[in-house]
Amino acid sequence: MKNAFWLFLIISVCSCKPYTSVIRHALSEENVPYSKAVIANGLIYASGQLGINPQTNLLQPDLESQTRQVMDNLRILLEQHHSGMQHIIKVNLYLKDISQLQRVNEIYTGYLSERKPARTSVQINALPLGALIEIDCIALAK
Hints:
Layout: H1 2-14, E1 20-21, E2 37-40, E3 43-49, E4 52-53, E5 58-59, H2 63-79, E6 88-95, H3 101-108, E7 118-123, E8 133-140
Parallel strand pairs: 6-7
Antiparallel strand pairs: 1-2, 2-3, 3-8, 4-5, 6-8
């Protein structure tokens, strides 16, 4: 039985298609050492999004507006790759202050379909640019 598992694993790994980095889209930043998203084996891995307005390149001023902007940025990223919020299967949510999770949930749930994705929520000491929230996700690619 163990040999069958290892054979399955080797075949699975060897049959994986190489991933595609998402190079350009409305939310692209110049000179960052990562892809905004990677598409691999039918999944979109979206890098963490901050509450930065792509038209002004400014961080929104408070938690509620940052949360809305983060969710809008994720929606735009997914839609540009023929997916959408309804196809998200996993979310990682990073908060400067975890006691604000209920406020975030009130906004977050308004962006999702009835099928809620798996999620991890953690408090961290600091986020880039002094942001209050960052969210990354994995979604099904269409």
